[in-house]
Structure formats: C-alpha cells, structure tokens
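testing teh design pipeline on a random one, pls ignore if ur not involved
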C-alpha cells in the first residue's frame, strides 16, 4: 500500500519534497525517480504532482535550494567569538569548505557547469552574501590589528583559497585541510610584529 501523506499546506509539502530530493540528487543525479523521492519523503508518488508540475520542476527547486546560503549564514553566526583567533579561522574555513564540497559534488552529480542564476531571488541572495561577508569579517574582531591587510581582504583571500583547495579538479585531487588553508593564508597575512608571538 502506498504511504499516506500527513496533511500539509502546499508550501510545506513543497518544502518537505525539496528537502527529501536534495540528498537523492547527490547520489543519483537527474536520474532520480519520483518513486525514490516519494519513498524518501514518505508520501505517494501522486502527492508530488499535487504541488509540482513535473519531476523537473521539483529537481530545479531542489537545486536552487542547495545554492541558498541561508544555512551557511546561520552556521557562521554560531561560531564562538571567544575561540582563539586561529581556531576561529579554522572553524570558519571548515564551514566554507563543507559548503563548497557539497555544492561541487551536487553540480558534478547533476551535470551542472555553473550555479543557477536565481533571477527571481537575486535580491535575497545578495542580502545573504552581505550577511555572510559581514559575519566573516566580524569573526576577526580585535585580531584585525595582527594582520598586514584589511579584514575584508583577508576574508576574500581565505574564501578564494578554500574554493580552489576544495575542488577536486582544481586541486588535482589533493584537497587541503582547513588547518592547512588557514596556515597558508593567516601566516602569510600576519603583520611581522605578530608572526612570532601568535601561538593562540
């Protein structure tokens, strides 16, 4: 017997189906079936088509969700500002690397060569991006005096190295650890007067 879906508002049902589809896309790519999605969501296949016109629409909605930085922004906000400077940067880089590797893996699985353009939500994505940038800069805090470059430039360099060091093809299959990434960027950007005494 097909599973009976618990009553949900259409928007909530769409949300549940999107969340169920994302992990399946990472495994099966666009070959994922509506039966697999329905089983993962605990609903009958027909339930999918009550809120989505087609499997393709659901897949596109899931892909769009994967690129939304909302969860990443929440995780950034949760980093303990009381951690030592280097530990804060390693925690930040760990979150960045996880986001990049998840996105790269998903793109590879579904055959994407570029992120979706999010034309209908461009303003919301711009807000998220500014929030993420502000949170990353804020994590440097008073330790900005230890750097030889402005905090925003430091964050930019950290993001760029994490991006390339987390991509299988760019890194030739030799991904760098968050600790190594931070060591390269942080030690290279420390002011001379702090390179010897930074042991925290």
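output:
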């Amino acid at each position: 017997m097909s599973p009976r879906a618990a009553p949900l508002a259409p928007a909530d049902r769409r949300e549940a189906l999107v969340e169920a589809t994302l992990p399946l896309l990472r495994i099966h790519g666009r070959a994922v079936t509506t039966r697999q999605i329905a089983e993962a969501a605990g609903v009958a296949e027909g339930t999918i088509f009550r809120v989505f016109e087609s499997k393709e629409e659901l897949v596109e909605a899931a892909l769009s969700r994967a690129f939304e930085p909302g969860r990443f922004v929440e995780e950034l906000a949760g980093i303990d500002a009381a951690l030592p400077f280097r530990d804060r940067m390693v925690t930040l880089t760990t979150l960045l690397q996880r986001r990049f590797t998840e996105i790269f893996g998903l793109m590879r699985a579904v055959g994407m060569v570029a992120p979706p353009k999010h034309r209908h939500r461009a303003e919301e994505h711009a807000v998220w991006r500014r929030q993420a940038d502000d949170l990353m800069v804020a994590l440097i805090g008073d330790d900005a005096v230890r750097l030889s470059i402005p905090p925003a430039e430091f964050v930019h360099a950290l993001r760029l190295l994490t991006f390339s060091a987390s991509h299988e093809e760019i890194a030739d299959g030799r991904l760098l650890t968050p600790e190594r990434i931070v060591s390269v960027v942080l030690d290279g950007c420390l002011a001379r007067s702090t390179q010897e005494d930074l042991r925290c």
